[in-house]
Amino acid sequence: MDVTGRRGRADPGAPIRVLLVDDEALMRAGLRLMVDGVDGIAVVGEAADGVEAIEAARELDPDVILMDIRMPRMNGIEATLALNAAGARARIVALTAFDTDDFLLGALRGGALSFLLKDADPEVVLGSIRDAAAGRARVSPAALSRLIALAARPAESSARSPAERAAAPPETITPREWEIGRLVARGLTNAEVADALHLGQATVKTHLASLFAKLHVTNRVQLAIRVLEHDG
User: Fold this and answer.
1) What's the domain count of the chain?
2) 45: number of Cβ within 10 Å
């Protein structure tokens, strides 16, 4: 199967094809019981580590991968990086607990679309899968607060001087683009950004598309992390 050069679902009218990746068989079984056959979602396969996940993605061509972060042999970050480097079509949702913060941040930087807490309610799991299939990131408010704290923590910005963490945006990014990026990092929607800056929503979308390209990110969560890392 050729997984390069394609993004998004091959057939939007078909069931959402999901690959479950977790080194705990009980966790995979629980997820399968929770989502398989519900609301147009079909579990098409399972994998116990990142190596198996890459092979399964090539063979099964899933729309969404629920990817555990901490696994033997190849962890979820390494697998996510490898799949994205290969141009895999599947959107990746990282599975995590709050005791794996550094792994989680690495997964989002590496190309995961969003993440899901392992103790999430069934409706949250189902919603996350549907959002991922549509290309939408989903992060719970509590988890987003944790991510912001991680991205902006002193340990990661202490090597930079106050001048380096000042208001000026990174090179090549316009002041307007950076202003919009900061509002997105605060959690504002496109409509709210447009209202705050007295712009049209189409203009906001154009600036965001430019920001995504310049910062090499694929969703609003990754954009927020990059903005917060720079501003410290």
Assistant:
1) 2
2) 18
CATH number at 227 reads 1.10.10.10
Same domain flag for 141 and 176: no
The answer to whether the beta carbons of residues 96 and 119 sit under 8 Å apart is: no
Paired with 67 in beta bridges are: 21, 94
CA distances from 125 to 40, 119, 131, 132 (A): 13, 9, 10, 11
Residues 6+ away with beta carbon under 8 Å from 119:
97
Quick one: 32 and 115 in the same domain?
yes
Look at strands 114-117 and 41-47 and give their pairing. Answer: unpaired
Instruction: Using alpha carbons only, give the angle 59, 25, 117 rounded to the nearest 5 degrees.
Output: 90
Per-residue pLDDT for the chain (232 aa), expressed as one digit of tens each? 333 334 556 566 789 999 999 999 999 999 999 999 998 999 999 999 999 999 999 999 999 999 998 899 999 989 999 998 888 899 999 887 765 566 667 777 777 887 777 888 888 889 999 999 988 877 665 566 666 666 555 444 444 444 444 445 667 899 999 999 988 887 788 899 999 999 999 999 999 999 988 888 877 777 877 787 776 5
